[in-house]
Amino acid sequence: MNRRQVLITGGAAALGTLVSPLARAVDLFTISLAQFSLHRTYYGDHAKKGWAHLGKLLRENPAAAVSTGPDPSDFPILSKTQFGIDAVEYVNQFYYAQLGNDPYFKEIALKADDYGVVSHLMMLDGTGPIGAADKVVRSDARENVKRWMAMANLLGCSIVRVNAQGDGDPVARAARTADALDQLAEDGQSMGLAVVVENHGGLSSDGAWLANVMSMAKHSGVGTLPDFGNFKTGQDAQGEDVWYDRYLGVTELMPYAKAVSAKSYGFGSDGNDTATDYNRMMKIVLDAGYRGYVGIEYEGRELDEASGIRATKALLERIRDQYRD
User: Which pTM value belongs to this model?
Assistant: First the structure.
């Protein structure tokens, strides 16, 4: 039975003992591509109308949200043919209308396989606050994540990213979040899925708080997805944005990292990112002993999305080559 037949008959879980994504990693790190780098491309004409319009559409008619852009199911093909990147990170936003459509996700897995692309992880949004004070709300969030875990499993992913949303006292919320992550990791274990949390705004962007959550979590399948840019913790009394130090935050989260998100915004004439010192940041990543995937997530406006992805890739490749020399 070949790999395509396995995917059709048994789902990606049957491949766990056959293919190890990390086995393909180079000596330092392997570059992957986060689908959100192309969110304006996928949302097409709807992206031009702003996030308020998109948010309403995603809630009420998610199929329409991606109706004017390219087919999201071709993402592995696009990653390989347009950017030469053979590992991908899906975003469930683009597939809201397909939740529960097993053949759809199996077909994406086949496309990835045909093009030699590893389905690394899936980022989950809109699943609910796993750290909510209300037990029913937490339970609903867990069930929502489990539904998407099943889709990630069909894709052949090894990780799902969840958000550490919640409410109430930060100390109590941390304990609830750690417990919820342990439960989710237990849910994902039979599917070969680890569960990671990204610094993704609010309290989760407080590196010390999220590192404390990780220290309380007991399951080995729980980890972090440090993002180079998502360290806005909120606003002060004057309405000014408050930011956690990104280098400190990544340093605090790297001991628990199972994936890394290389956020980029813009580039100078020297090819370096204008918001983040990539040399400094990648030294933090590598000094932590990390040797896995580093996912490109371009969110800038100065370059179009394709050019931003290529610029980020070139920067990461240059840094990797410097370490090899």
Answer: 0.90
- Structure tokens given for 241: 């944005």
232-282: per-residue pLDDT in tens?
A: 999 999 999 999 999 999 999 999 999 999 999 999 999 999 999 999 999
Q: How does DSSP assign 160-179, residue by residue?
A: EEE---B-S-HHHHHHHHHH
Segment holding 295, helix H or strand E = strand 293-298
Domain boundaries, the chain: 3-324
SS3 labels along 80-96 = HHHHCCCEEEEEHHHHH
Residue 123 forms beta bridges with which residues? 91, 161
Q: Quick one: which H or E segment has residue 260?
A: strand 260-264
Kindly tell me if the per-residue pLDDT of 8 is higher than 80: no
**Cα 29 from chain centroid?**
16
- CATH classification of 3-324, choosing from 1.10.1780.10, 3.20.20.150, 3.40.630.10, 1.10.630.10? 3.20.20.150
308 and 263 in contact (C-beta within 8 Å)? no
Residues 268/271/273/277 CA torsion (nearest 10 deg): -110
Gap between the Cα atoms of 211 and 7, Å rounded: 37
For the chain, what percentages of helix, strand and coil (3-state, to nearest 5) are there? 55, 15, 30
Q: What letter represents residue 210's amino acid?
A: L
- Cβ of 325: how many Cβ atoms within 10 Å? 4
Which amino acid, residue 193? L
SS3 state at 16: coil
Task: Provide DSSP, 96-153.
Answer: GGGTT-HHHHHHHHHHHHHTT-EEEEEE--SS--TB-SSHHHHHHHHHHHHHHHHHHH
For residue 223, give Cα distances in angstroms to 168, 177, 181, 219: 23, 12, 9, 9
Burial of 63 (0-12, 13-18, 19+ CB in 10 A): exposed
